[in-house]
Amino acid sequence: MPPSAITIGVLALQGAFHEHIKLLHHAISQLQSENEQDWEILEIRTPDALERCDALIIPGGESTSVSLVAARSGLLEPLRDFVKIHRRPTWGTCAGLILLSESANRTGAKKGGQELVGGLDVRVKRNFFGRQVESFEAELELPFLSAESGGEGNEELFRGVFIRAPVVEKILPSVEGEQKVEAEREEMVVAPGKDGVGQGEGSWPVEVMARLPGRSRRVMEELVEAEGLEEEVGDIVAVRQRNVFGTSFHPELTADARIHVWWLRQVLEAVQERKNEYGER
Fold first, then answer.
1. Kindly report the CA angle at 243 between 94 and 19, in degrees rounded to 5?
2. Predicted structure pTM score
3. Main-chain phi, psi angles of 103, to 5 degrees
4. Contact 100, 124 (CB under 8 A)
5. C-beta separation of 8 from 24 below 8 A
6. 267-277 tens-digit pLDDT
C-alpha cells in the first residue's frame, strides 16, 4: 500500500512561488521513479492551509512585503510555530532566508516595519552585494548534492542566481528564546523567541552548506564582521540548522532541480522520523 501523500506548502504571498512549484513538480517526477511516495503541493495563503503541510518553502521576493502581508493574513505566528516549535522542514530562498534568520540588519526596513519568523541561529546582512542592477550569477560548489549526502551524486557546479541577495554574516549561539545580544544592537531586527517542542532539547548547530568566494575582500573594503567564520573565506550563501534550510540565491530561477530533489529527500526522512517518534501519519 503506497504511503500517505506528503504535503509541501509554498508560501504564496509574494515573490517567485510559481517558479518553486514548477521545479518541485520536476523534482517529484524524478523521485517517483525511485519509490511510490505521493506528494501534494499547496499554495499557502492562510493558517488553515499551513496546518495541512508537512514542509514549507518560503520563496524569494521582498522580505518586508512578505512579512507585512503575512502579519495581515494572520500567518506570522502560525509560521513561527511551524518552524520553531514543530520544527517542520522549511526552506527559505533569498527573502525567505532573511525571514528565517534570528537577526537581520534594518537596511531597507524601517523600524517596526519588518518582522522575522526565525528558526536559523544566524545574523543576515540583506542586499549584501548591492542593488538590483548589481545582480549576478555564479558557479557554486555544493557538496551536499553528493550521493553520500543524500543528493543525486551529481556534483557539477550549480549556477546560483543572486538578486539583491543577503549573506549570512554571523553564526549565532543557540539560546533559549530571543537573541538578546542581537536585540541590543539598534541596527538589527530580531525574531521573537518561542518556547515549546524543539526548544531547549539540545543544541542543534548551524551547518554552513555553501560559500561564495570573496568574503575576505569584502571584509577589508567594508569592515563587515567576520566572527565565527574561522579561517575559511567566502560569503556564506547556504545554511542548515536541523530541519531549517536557507539559501541566499534562487534555485527556482534556474532549470536545475537538484537542490529541490535533495530537499525533498530531507523532507521524506523528516516525515518518516516524525511518524516513528510520534506515531503521526
1. 40
2. 0.87
3. -155, 140
4. no
5. yes
6. 999 999 888 87
Query: Taking the CB of residue 247, how many other CB atoms lie within 10 A of it?
Result: 28
**Distance of alpha carbon 32 from the chain centroid:** 24
Work out the pLDDT band at 216, boundaries 50, 70, 90.
Answer: very low
Cell of 134: 548589481
Q: Given the residues 102, 169, 250, 260, select the one marked as catalytic.
A: 250
pLDDT, one tens digit per residue, over 243-259 is 999 999 999 999 999 99
252 is known as an active-site residue: yes
Total length of the chain:
281
Cell (9 digits) for 280: 503521526
Residue 38 CB contacts under 8 Å (≥ 6 apart), including other chains: 2, 3, 4, 5, 6
Residue 175: all three cell numbers together = 539560546
* 77 burial type by CB count under 10 A (0-12 exposed, 13-18 middle, 19+ buried): middle
CA distance 224 to 216: 9
Strand-pairing partners, residue 167, are: 125
3 state SS of 281: coil
Say whether 86 is catalytic. Answer: no
Annotation says 18 is catalytic? no
Catalytic residue among 19, 102, 169, 252: 252
Cell of 270: 523528516
Catalytic residue among 19, 20, 94, 169: 94
